[in-house]
Amino acid sequence: LTQITATSVTIGDEILIGQITDTNSQWIASEFGKLGVTVEMMLSISDTENAIQSVVKNQTTDLLVLTGGLGPTKDDITKHTLAKFFNTPLVVHQETLQRLTTYYAARKRSLNELNETQAQVPQNCIVLKNDFGTAPGMWFQENEKVIVSLPGVPLEMKKLMGIQVIPKLRSYFSTPYIYHKTLHTIGIAESDLAIKIKDWENGLPKAVKLAYLPSLGMVRLRLSLQSSNRETAENLVQPLLVELKKLINHYVYGEDGDLIEQVVGELLLKKNKTLATAESCTGGNIGQLITSIAGSSQYFNGGLISYSNEVKIKSLHVPSDVIDKYGAVSEQTVSFMSTNVCELLHSDYGIAVSGIAGPGGGTDIKPVGTVWLALSSEKGTITKKLVLTPHREKNIRLASIYALDLLRKQLLKS
Amino acid sequence: LTQITATSVTIGDEILIGQITDTNSQWIASEFGKLGVTVEMMLSISDTENAIQSVVKNQTTDLLVLTGGLGPTKDDITKHTLAKFFNTPLVVHQETLQRLTTYYAARKRSLNELNETQAQVPQNCIVLKNDFGTAPGMWFQENEKVIVSLPGVPLEMKKLMGIQVIPKLRSYFSTPYIYHKTLHTIGIAESDLAIKIKDWENGLPKAVKLAYLPSLGMVRLRLSLQSSNRETAENLVQPLLVELKKLINHYVYGEDGDLIEQVVGELLLKKNKTLATAESCTGGNIGQLITSIAGSSQYFNGGLISYSNEVKIKSLHVPSDVIDKYGAVSEQTVSFMSTNVCELLHSDYGIAVSGIAGPGGGTDIKPVGTVWLALSSEKGTITKKLVLTPHREKNIRLASIYALDLLRKQLLKS
């Protein structure tokens, strides 16, 4: 099988002046990777005819994906430049005109001149219908090379890629079927994970590729396999996954894009249990993560952000002599916090966090990054000490996801 | 004055496979904009000699900034490729070798062979000392063109740019002095802002450029002026700013990179006041924003996340008949929430939020995006109704920053 290559080109002055970050290229590259298409280069260029012409004239890859520059205003010139490049006129695409008329009618507006120009496309293109915005996408093929032009708005670009471009690419380039399976781990470093699965990794069939994808506190493991169809791939990968999970089951919280806050929410929902939080150094971040999931009101009662010791004592009823004796960042304090929030908010589970996020507040015995977690339920309270980083932002994020993971493990046991 | 042009090139396969987003280019472009250097193109390329050679051979701009590919491992080849391109040997840079020896000694490790190669640089470069990592930066100048090579780690890149590259660029290209002043507004749409300041904008001297930089719920206004020095620029811009602030003072919460949570924190600190929060639909996000600022324990006591009605009633003491009669999302409920959290947590100010974040839970009378805010202090309670968007994530963010802005305005009055 030959390797299909691509270049991603984002068009727009707002990128070049540093006003926004180009996130389209990363998304496209990630999707193309799953498809077996190699992105050789990413480019961000200005909304000028010269810049766009230069890119299309010097196409070195099988596929060129242009995003941006398709708006109705004067500064958007991608369409005109492509028509010029292909030496073809712009013509009104009747189906798009009809779609736009309906679109604006639904918004109680009639089409103005500017909107109408959005229905014009170079005569030689295949129109990619855009149901999520006004500008249609365009597909050009000439001399075995393909140019695709899409709107730059990430939502529209992603929808058009999924519905129109990727299916067309599959058939045009007869790309191989590539099967992917991703396991999400938490709480183990990339290098430790690599040691744990070394023998398994060395024993992988040559066709199966393994990628380590690390982020803060988490590592994703992605298995990829080029195959004729899904069933064949799954039959090969399934027993490998079983083996892999045996080795690292303790650290795997989900698959294929799962978020830890979503996995915990699903478990609570399934087991019909409720949760309350008592947060000190995370300052509300755990509550925020949990409630970022739609429908979380079904299992999340609420929580106390006990940032000051007074709130810990008066609202959370942590005995003041416990704080005096052991400190606010201690196993004893955090245990009272989780037990009491559970009871005060009539919840099945209570999680509590107290730590030194930094940059100030550290001591020799309790340096910045020292965090205590506690989890309470009718079965009692378990605690865990974390030694994190010197960085406030990282400590808040790590303490939050590790607290959620502690709850996840407990939910699996119950 | 001639325009100085630049190309930003990020090197690394992890970008091309879509594993990470290139954020270096955006940062560089934004810094160059302040310097009056125009970024004409951004490129992301692979860690291959071909790709790097092609870019340096075809340099079309005055300046080429390469980031990435300077690590000690075999896949990092930027340095070797540049030496080859300039036809110059790699030599050990003694000062860097000394720095690395000290660096590793401090970590109780001695230099291995791999680390030592990090002290090698092409003979024709000027070394840019890197105090924040191991790989030094490099500056090449030939035929009036400049190539700069920097580590790809964002923190190291930014430090080297600020300390080494930008001062050298100023003197090498004798870039003009560009004065920037940014006002941050909140709670007014870009188009409404444009109408409010239309006459003022039309009356701006030609030398002063105005840019609108919108983000969710906020718009930054940036005034730029090319000048011989800071004083001249400030003398011209100052009276313009006074006029501008008169027109939009209600919406301006800060300047030059200020965050709303930081501005509110500084005001609380200055006025020696404390804060408590009662959050329903924002689920802890306001607490999280406030405590993201180091030192927030000086003014933030804590809060209650009253996600369920039971918590609103039992922990926050909102009368159950008020919730029955007016609903949890109502002026009455949110007023009780802010008044009571203020009292319960012995704080000078209490802010409360209750709303329908979505996607579910909306009705005809209270659609998704309906949010009530309340702010209590010894002076009483003020409330505000927001009608936001159909999107959960946006509603949570908008409700949070608008609640902080309500507090900011009250703090300015007191």
As residue ranges, the low-confidence spans of chain A are: none
Number of strands of chain A: 17
Task: Compute the separation of the termini of chain A in Å.
Answer: 50 Å
Q: Shape of chain A from CA axes?
A: elongated
As a percent range, the share of strand residues of chain A is 25-35%
Radius of gyration of chain A: 27 Å
Task: Determine the number of helices of chain A (DSSP H or I, runs of at least 4 residues).
Answer: 16
Strand order of the largest sheet of chain A: 2-1-3-8-7-6
Q: What keyword list fits this structure?
A:
homodimer; 414 residues; alpha/beta; 6-stranded mixed sheet; 5-stranded mixed sheet; 16 helices; 27% strand; elongated
Task: Please give the structural blueprint.
The structure is a homodimer of 414-residue chains.
Chain A: E1 4-11, H1 13-16, H2 24-35, E2 37-45, H3 49-57, E3 63-67, H4 78-85, E4 90-92, H5 94-106, H6 113-117, E5 120-122, E6 126-128, E7 137-142, E8 145-150, H7 154-172, E9 177-186, H8 190-196, H9 198-202, E10 208-215, E11 218-227, H10 230-248, E12 252-255, H11 260-270, E13 275-279, H12 285-291, E14 300-306, H13 309-314, H14 320-326, H15 331-344, E15 349-355, E16 370-377, E17 380-387, H16 392-413
Parallel strand pairs in A: 1-2, 1-3, 3-8, 13-14, 13-15
Antiparallel strand pairs in A: 4-5, 6-7, 7-8, 9-11, 9-12, 10-11, 15-16, 16-17
Helix pairs in contact in A: 2-7, 3-4, 11-16
